[in-house]
Amino acid sequence: MTKLKTETVTLNMGPHHPSTHGVFRLILTLDGETIVDVEPVVGYLHRNHEKIGEKNNWIQNTPFTDRLDYISPMNNEFAYVLAVEKLAEIDPPERAKYIRIIMVELNRIANHLIAIGFLLNELGCFFTPMFYALRWREMIVDLYEMTCGSRMMPNYFWIGGVSADLPEGFLPECKELVSALPGFLDEMEQLITENEILQMRCKNVAILPPEVATAFGCTGPLLRASGVPYDVRRAEPYSIYDRFDFDIPIGTVGDVYDRYLVRIAEARQSVRIVDQALRDLPGGETATPKKRKFTPPVGDIYHRTEAPKGELGFYLVSDGTENPYRYRIRAPSFVNLQALPYMCRGHKIADVVVVIGSIDITMGEVDR
Fold it and tell me: What is the DSSP letter of 129?
């Protein structure tokens, strides 16, 4: 019997597809409904962020970082101010260090809840968990609003500390939230982890072997789901992370299902960290003396942090003026996106958005 020869078909997905977490385009090469190749096309959301960062002064860039991964703005600010403080040899007060950890780990929980909710939405059959995830994220951003007056663009981390101390009422509300979160995560798992549809759509889909993930430069939950226990908070501890007890969850298969499980487990570890930070929170000042003008010494620095999506790094060059000479960002969403074609090949069209959801990208930091 003669085997039929078929031609491949090129299909554009986007640039306005609702499941691509921003304005994003994919050029799919298909054999029937089977994916032969994927070419990501980025740049639709490019805002010239890094060149504008060289026109802003050092202080103005802090709120500007909120526009990168706008799901996790506190983590963007944290990475930037730590890089500047390292360059200028500034040591923030102890209370500010603890407040920063509380804020970024709450942000990690919110990010992972949203990532899981979007992933389940993209399966096309799980809408309820997204509403639950958004409800608990609201409680976290309510704490942000209480502290700095903003829910998504906080401008709370300043060079040398934080912009203001925690307001009255923050600590009891935060402790109540942290004590309730494990119960909510248990409910989420009871609702979806053993669900037959979730397992059929996610198990053994888009497997990323550890050596391939490492070769692509992947970091964050995407890498750890492949079984690589790499977390910047442990590999190169920064701020006061060496004072906290927490585990690094990893997967065993490296598929979409493992990425879901790792994010649930990481949210639990963030709850542990926040609980310890609230317990040990010292008194005292929350910032070094404020300056209207800030000029770090001549030099360059690269500082990296473990953001919710992976390794977020800032490379800064100072020529001794009020503006950075060079302002460069290592964005985890951009780097992790490189593995998308590898993970999609051999799967069906319907799996593409599921794979994107499992990577957890934000186009604000992909395009910059």
Answer: H
d(CA 117, CA 143): 21
Distances (CA, A) of 230 to 16, 131, 269: 34, 31, 15
Neighbours of 251 (CB within 10 A): 23
Give pLDDT tens digits for 121-168. 878 766 788 888 888 899 999 999 999 888 888 889 999 899 889 999
| Tokens representing residue 368 in the block | 């910059």
What number is the average pLDDT over the span 261-281? 94
H/E element holding 35? Answer: strand 34-41
pLDDT for 353? 85
pLDDT at 244 over 70: yes
* Token pair 């799996």: residue: 351
CA angle 338, 267, 22 (to 5 degrees): 40
**Whole-angstrom distance, CA of residue 96 vs CA of residue 203:** 42
CB 364, CB 68: distance < 8 Å: yes
Beta bridge partners of 305: 312
Q: Which of 88, 311, 282, 267 shows the shortest CA–CA distance to 177?
A: 267
Which whole number is the average pLDDT over 21-32? 84
Using the CB atoms, write b or e for 33-56: b if 16+ within 10 Å.
eebeebebebebbeeebeeebeeb
Q: Classify residue 109 as exposed, middle or buried by CB count within 10 Å of its CB (0-12, 13-18, 19+).
A: buried
Separation of alpha carbons 223 and 259, rounded Å: 9
**Residues 318 and 329 sit within 8 Å (Cβ to Cβ):** no
What pTM does this model have? 0.92
Count CA within 13 A, CB hemisphere, residue 356. Answer: 25
Q: What would the pLDDT profile of 78-92 be if each residue is shown by its tens digit?
A: 999 999 999 999 999
User: What are the helix (H) ranges across the chain?
Assistant: 49-55, 61-64, 73-88, 94-122, 128-148, 170-192, 196-202, 210-215, 221-224, 232-235, 256-280, 332-336, 340-344, 349-359, 363-367
Say how far apart CA 176 and CA 187 lie, in whole Å. 17
